Amino acid sequence: MDAVVALNHIKRASLYLQEFGWSFNMVEGATQYSPSALPQDVLRVMATDPFRNLTKRGNRVYDNTTRAFVSGSVPLDVVLFLPFEDLPEAARAYVTASAAHGFQSKFLGDGDLYQFSAEDVREAWNRFVHLEGGSDAVTRRDVSRLFQSRGWSFNTEWAVAHAPVSGRVTLGANTLRAVPTLPSVAAAQRGAQILNPSAMLTGTVLLDIVRLLPFESLPHAAKTFVTASAARKFRDRFPREDGADKSGNAAAQEAQTAAVDEARAWAEFLSSEGQGDMESVREASIRLQSQGWSFNTEWGVTLPVVSGKVTLAADILRAVPTTPAPVFSQRGQALVNRSTNTTTFTAPVTADMIRFLPLTSLPQHARNFIRASSLSRFTAARGDGQSESGAPSSAAVDEARAWAEFLSSEGQGDMESVREASIRLQSQGWSFNTEWGVTLPPDPSGEVPVPQGTLRVDPEGNSDAFVYRAGKLFDAKGGTFLIGTAVTADLVRLLPFDALPASASSYIRIMSARRCWTLLLGNRVPIAWSETEELQARVNFMNHESEVEDYNILSVTLPTSQYRRKGR
User: Fold this and answer.
1) Cβ-count burial of 388 within 10 angstroms (0-12 exposed, 13-18 middle, 19+ buried)?
2) What is the DSSP annotation of 475-537?
3) How many angstroms separate the CA atoms of 473 and 128, rounded?
4) Distance CA 194, CA 206 (A)
5) What average pLDDT does this structure show over 354-380?
């Protein structure tokens, strides 16, 4: 009888231990088990698919979402009950100590009187948990999934093309998260699908995807953090091993040690990762690209009118009129006619546009800055933005350095800086953007419209009273737009940036770069371009102008329009 009772104690202690799920009795992604007839040695089941919530009921698998039993083959994470002799040595030692201590306590009245004391049980438990990495496999599995769901360099795929079926995209079983690559695409994840609640998805949909990787496939720093985090969570759940008494100070010290180990592993992981999570990277990429740079800005693009409207492609972040006059504004992916305050257009418009590029399509200097910026913003959001002395964190310093390297590699400012510098230079009127003796005919109402993209109008002869105002000529003496006759004038036109001569575009680049650097970095980092370099770029530009227009030494400092006007 005593032997039977002792064996029952061993079985109960073994069952208690194995129900946790450890490295030796948990099988992930198993497909050999039938959900409708689980073997007797299956203790627990969990869904391998992150979008399913499965559990064991009797000897069958139950779906808590659909509230129905599962039929057919489905991958499962399974916790098995192993015979005592198949357990690892440390597990057998704990089971033996726990069963013996329980047997002694029940039949002899005091578990500490004989061979196995509570201290023996605690030591056996600690040794076993230590050899298992500090936690059970189920806790480590849950921690790994939560950790990986943020999306890191090793489990994030950018701009993966998907073809919608019935207006929605179905995600793979190993997908934790997915978001549209293009910021303008109105779609969101619902369970295992990407859909737009108000419209059907059509064409090719680009998605940024976070994959679930097996623990063994994670980089070393990621595995170290997952192990440390799981150990801390496991210790929080079981602060007193198997009920053994411990002083409050000892328990608090162990909890503090576990928390410190987790924090150290987290810092080491972020250092090796070198970037923030997927959302931080996406935000940094959108923030950088929306400013418009050499690699994603298109100048002077003609946008056609389709059914009376001008609609931007899904990858367009911003569109602004190439002309200085605000002839349109952007509202989502549609343009609004500023003259009528409607979305109706009768003629094509010309725009400078900023496209959004997938991360993998960006130049290296842009990717480097995005990584550094995402890490800086990610750590700052978690309260790690400053050191204990109050100085900027190393991530913030790295971001400033990466920003300086990006601007230096880019060689020009953002789109607004380039546009401002271009307008400032071109408005003076040079050989490449001045048109002489242009006849401006009146329209049927008697007003004289001026072509779009005109920066200045200089009427000839006795027309000095005519001035350029609101896209038309205005008779300043008569106080009216009604001129009624054709006017001959010299026009200074605004050309798209990429249509300028090389000497002009080089000068504009360095002007815009210096302005952008000063605005964004101030004096934190020495500027990459000196005033002398900017002056030399202007000298090169002026030399080019003098060669084109055959200026003499007395007139070389004047723009073309001023020089010719003075010569008339």
Assistant:
1) exposed
2) ETTTTBSB--S-EEEEEEEPPPGGGS-HHHHHHHHHHHHHHHHHHHHTTSS--SS-HHHHHHH
3) 90
4) 11
5) 95
For 51, half-sphere exposure in the C-beta direction (CA atoms, 13 angstrom radius) is: 16
Strands 193-195 and 169-170: what pairing? antiparallel
Cβ neighbourhood burial of 366 (10 Å; 0-12, 13-18, 19+): buried
Nearest CA-CA partner of 186 in 314, 290, 313, 356: 314
Return d(Cα 504, Cα 425) in angstroms, integer.
Answer: 8
* Nearest of 307, 306, 312, 304 to residue 329 by alpha carbon: 312
pLDDT, tens digit, for every residue of 53-110? 999 999 999 999 999 999 888 899 999 999 999 999 999 999 999 988 877 766 655 5
Q: Tokens 């194995």 map to which residue?
A: 18
pLDDT band at 173 (very low <50, low <70, confident <90, very high): confident
- CA angle 366–371–377, rounded 5-degree value: 120
- Average pLDDT over the chain reads 88
Least confident of 40-49, 404-413, 516-525: 516-525
pLDDT value, residue 146: 96
User: Distance between CA atoms of 467 and 462, rounded to whole angstroms?
Assistant: 12
- Asked whether 296 and 289 are in contact (CB, 8 A), the reply is yes
pTM, two decimal places: 0.84
Rg of the chain (C-alpha set):
36
List the alpha helices (DSSP H) in 274-363: 278-289
**pLDDT tens, residue by residue, 385-433:** 444 445 556 888 888 889 989 999 999 999 999 999 999 999 999 999 9
Give Cα separations from 457 to 236, 373, 474, 564 (angstroms): 77, 46, 11, 14
Q: Is the dihedral of CA 86, 90, 94, 99 positive or negative?
A: positive
State the first-to-last Cα distance of the chain, in angstroms, to the nearest integer: 125
**Alpha-carbon torsion 195, 197, 200, 205, what sign?**
negative
Give the Cα separation of 192 and 197 in Å (integer).
15
Residue 511 pLDDT > 70, yes or no? yes
Residue 466 DSSP class: E
pLDDT higher than threshold 80 for residue 240 = no
Place of tokens 């054709």: 486
Query: Exposed/middle/buried for 478, CB within 10 Å: 0-12, 13-18, 19+?
Result: exposed
HEC profile for 192-203? CEEEECCECCCC
